[in-house]
Amino acid sequence: MHHFDVETLTAGQWLNGGGTTRQIASRPAGDGDFSWRASIADIERDGPFSAFPGVDRTLTLLAGDGVRLTCPGVFDRLLERAGEPFAFSGDLALDAELPGGSCRVLNIMVRRGRTTARVERVTGRVAPPAGRSGVVYVLGGRWQAGTDGPVLAPGRGVWWDEDALAPGGAVVPLSPDASALWADIAPAG
Predict the structure, then answer these.
(1) Where are the domains of the chain?
(2) Which parts pass through the membrane (predicted)?
(3) Which residues pair with 39 in a beta bridge?
(4) What is the CATH number of domain 115-187?
(5) Which helix (H) or strand (E) holds 160?
(6) pLDDT in tens, 73-123
(7) pTM score > 0.85 for this model?
(8) What is the rounded CA–CA span in Å between residue 94 and residue 152?
(9) Taking phi first (over 0 means left), then psi (-120 to 50 degrees means alpha), and beta for anything else, what does residue 163 get?
(10) Distance CA 49, CA 59 (A)
(11) What CA–CA distance (Å, rounded) separates 87 from 89?
């Protein structure tokens, strides 16, 4: 498993200046034609979201007062509860509005036809399924990745590739207030 701490990931400015992105992982690495990508975005002002044709996205609020995503005639959704995933097509031209100021989100993107993703809030043990990739992001409490892994606090997590021979064991909660987001990323079809 690969460990990460959001605060040590390099932040890159969006082309439209509306925020920054900290990439957790992209597979294949360094390839603009990714099969899947996980990142943390800090949305700093109202404005358009970039379209990603052929990509399915899941956005989950991590911090802040929320973000309203709108696509006229398709949906108008206010993400106001931290840890509640929202899936949508990256083909759509979206606008984002920040009713309470800047916010932080987890962004999982998968290339349609190659991979699928299911993102859920978990409070119990996560055992990486064989042949699948994944990301666990700690929302609250303390967690441990594998039997010898470091203790993970909020803002930290782990990710693994589908071809890992042994993903390193389960990610387990260590405290009663433990909660995390788990993105289970599987090959399509």
Answers:
(1) 2-111, 115-187
(2) none
(3) 23, 107
(4) 2.60.120.10
(5) strand 156-160
(6) 899 999 999 999 999 999 998 999 999 999 999 999 999 999 999 999 999
(7) yes
(8) 34
(9) alpha
(10) 12
(11) 7
